Amino acid sequence: MRALKPELYTIPASGETPALCGGTCACGYVFFPMQRYGCEKCGKTGDALTPTLLEGEGTLVASSRVLMHARKDRQAPFVVLSVKLKGGPVVRTLLAEDTDKFLPVGLQLKACLVEVDGPGDGEKRLDLRFTPAA
Length: 134
Fold this sequence. Notes:
This protein is mostly beta strands.
């Protein structure tokens, strides 16, 4: 099965955690997603920015449950997360499964891939989400 956004994450072998496709600047700043516009910290561009695979594990910084969404293709409810990746930046993502349970700050999370509908074609694709680690 194909990835919905293959430029953002890897599709690992069975049972492994997906990695996120981020980048590192020559100054040491780590970012997600990979881009070449310029480092947010020092402003370097081009070859100073190199692709880096970031661990798909991290710590919950914040969460919010969305009960209504303006886009018709985004069915609520769902949970939006801010996750501080191990050795990387804070990323905004979705929880793999909706829940109305309280998610404590500091909760350990790991990346996973879930089946979602493709853009307009109905074909199933894999997309990145996070779920509580064991």
